[in-house]
Automatic annotation (TrEMBL):
CDD domains referenced in this protein's UniProt entry, alphabetically: F1-ATPase_delta (cd12152)
Location of the protein in the cell: Cell membrane
Family: Belongs to the ATPase epsilon chain family.
Keywords in alphabetical order: ATP synthesis, CF(1), Ion transport, Membrane, Transport
Coiled-coil region(s): none
Family annotation (NCBIfam families): PRK13442.1
Name of this protein: ATP synthase F1 complex delta/epsilon subunit N-terminal domain-containing protein
Length: 86
């Protein structure tokens, strides 16, 4: 089972796709998400969002100033500033 992830900044969609694991930094520390995770609403802290896609490849993004929301198997990360790491 996959997790549907949407990472957006204030002005653009940064990354959307299916993942098996997402790790993000909140003001309370790092948190990991997999399909079936309980609902969460948290304040995003400045740091990296690490996404493991269903094929095993990794996507890294820097994000800050926003929030994340987990509902069902949908994880939405809304950041004031976010960009993929090349």
């Amino acid at each position: 089972m996959a997790l549907h992830v949407s990472l957006v900044s204030a002005d653009a969609e940064v990354w959307t796709g299916e993942a098996t694991l997402v790790i993000a930094k909140t003001v309370e520390g790092e948190i990991g998400f997999m399909a079936g995770h309980e609902p969460v609403l948290a304040i995003l802290a400045e740091g990296q969002v690490r996404i493991t896609q269903t094929d095993g490849t990794k996507v890294l993004a820097n994000a800050q100033d926003g929030f994340l929301s987990m509902e069902g198997d949908n994880l939405t990360i809304v950041a004031g500033n976010a960009a993929l790491v090349a």
